[in-house]
Each structure stands twice: as structure tokens, then as C-alpha cells.
Amino acid sequence: MEIKIYEKVMSANDAIASEIRKLLSANNIIALNVIGSPGSGKTTVLEAVIPMLLKKKPPVESAVIEGDLATAYDAERLGSLGITAVQVNTGSGCHLDANLIYKPLKELLLEKINIIFIENVGNLVCPSQFDLGENAKIAVLSVSEGDDKAAKYPLLFRVASCVVLNKIDLLPYSNFNKERFWGQVRKINPNITCFEISAANGEGVEEFINWICKYKMCNEK
Ligand SMILES: Nc1nc2c(ncn2[C@@H]2O[C@H](COP(=O)(O)OP(=O)(O)O)[C@@H](O)[C@H]2O)c(=O)[nH]1
Ligand SMILES: [Mg+2]
């Protein structure tokens, strides 16, 4: 019985996700769903990436939908970059679903946007289960979280197209074993694209941006 209710929830979500996909495609927009634990550096990664995308020729214009239980802190941080940043507060909800982002998405000036970043609620589990109509899920994990997290929370790494290992600048101060981490990631998803970056000092960010731009080109109508 409970399984039937769950299926109904998911099919309702997937119907809206399909509408979102149509809307994005009609406007030639790529949506990237950024998923990771609270504090892994999702917002800082976007703070590093978005201005560099704007410097591309021609400029790549971004907008952001921010998911958090409470506050508009992250939308304020990213809005200060001069882009449109919409905050969605879920109250007690541990993830974004398609219904939560559909209305804010429709209200964006879609004709002016090339990429929509969706920063999901900080959580390594639930956001992976929901299709938001995005083109790709991006997993952000940081050195300070420990090198065993892919093995312990495999779902995200199974559904993500790319993993960003952030806070690489902290490696000398931690016992994080990169070989162990990447070995576990590749065991779960051999085709996943991997990056090591420091959103704080910019190391590795250019390579990640090149992937985003290539991904965008490959997925344009
Ligand atoms: N040392 C270091 N700190 C970082 C890096 N990226 C983010 N942080 C810090 O980690 C904390 C959480 O970052 P935030 O972007 O808010 O994480 P979010 O909750 O995943 O959005 C902040 O204090 C950031 O300054 C990084 O690459 N290196
Ligand atoms: Mg954040």
C-alpha cells in the first residue's frame, strides 16, 4: 500500500519534470542540478563558476534557483553577482521536487538565460531521487567530509553525470585518501566525469567550466 502511494507521488513529480524539460528545451536552456551535503561548498562553487561563464565569448548567462529549508542567504550571495537568483524555502522538506521549482522557473526571463543552476537542499540522499527536468545532476563533495561518502551514499553517484571534489586546498590538512574516494566513485559509476577543485582559490575551476560549456553545446537544440 505504501509503495503505491510512493509511486503516485513520483509519477506526479515526473509529469511536472517533463513539462519543465519541454520549457527548458523550447528556450534552449540547460539546467544543472547541484547536489551535496550542507557545507560541501555548492554555493561557493557557483560563486566561482558563474562570473567565469559570463567572461566567455559570447557570455554564458546564468540564473539560479536556490533550495534551502529557511533563509535567503544563498540567493542573496549569488544575486550579488548580478544574476537572477530565486530562493525556494522548503520549510521542513529535505529536497526540491519538480513542483517546487516549476513556478519560479516560469517567472524567470528565460529568453535571456543559457544555464539554470539549481542548488538543491543540502543533503546527500533525498535530492538524488527527484527528477527536476534537469539535464544533469552534479554531485559536490568536499575533502572535509571524508573519503568514504561515495560508498556510503551511492545513489547520488549513480545518478550524477559529474562529481566535483571541492576543498582540494584542504588536502594537506586532512587524511582524505583521493585514490580510495575516486576508486569507490568509479566502482559505482564507471562513466562519471570527475573534477578536483578548490572553489576558494580557483584551482581546477577552469576544467569544470570547460565541461559545463561542452555539456551545454552538446545538449543545445
Ligand atoms: N577551504 C575551502 N573552503 C571552502 C571551499 N568551498 C567552500 N568553502 C567554505 O565552506 C563553507 C560552506 O560553503 P557553502 O558554499 O556555503 O556550502 P553549501 O552549504 O554547500 O552551499 C564556507 O565557509 C565556504 O567558505 C574551498 O574550496 N576550500
Ligand atoms: Mg549553499
Explain this structure to me?
Helices cover 41% and strands 19% of the residues. The protein has 221 residues and is an alpha/beta fold. It is built from 8 helices and 7 strands; from the N terminus they run H-E-H-E-H-E-H-E-E-H-H-E-H-E-H. A 7-stranded parallel β-sheet has the order 3-2-4-1-5-6-7, with helices on both faces. It has helices at 2-26, 42-54, 73-79, 98-107, 149-152, 154-159, 178-188, 205-219; strands spanning 30-36, 62-68, 84-89, 115-119, 136-142, 162-166, 193-196. The termini are far apart. Guanosine-5'-diphosphate (GDP) binds at residues 36, 38-44, 122, 166-167, 169-170, 198-200. Guanosine-5'-diphosphate (GDP) binds next to helix 2.
Instruction: Give the overall pLDDT as a whole number.
Output: 95
Radius of gyration: 17 Å
Distance separating the two termini? 41 Å
Order of strands across the main sheet: 3-2-4-1-5-6-7
Biggest sheet character: 7 strands, parallel
Structural shape: globular
Low-confidence stretches: none
The helix/strand series, from N terminus to C terminus, equals HEHEHEHEEHHEHEH
How many helices?
A: 8
Helix amount: 40-55%
| Unique ligands | guanosine-5'-diphosphate, magnesium ion
Summing up helix and strand content along with how strands pair, one would put the structural category as alpha/beta
Q: How much of the sequence is in beta strands?
A: 15-25%
List its salient traits.
alpha/beta, seven-stranded parallel sheet, 8 helices, binds guanosine-5'-diphosphate, binds magnesium ion
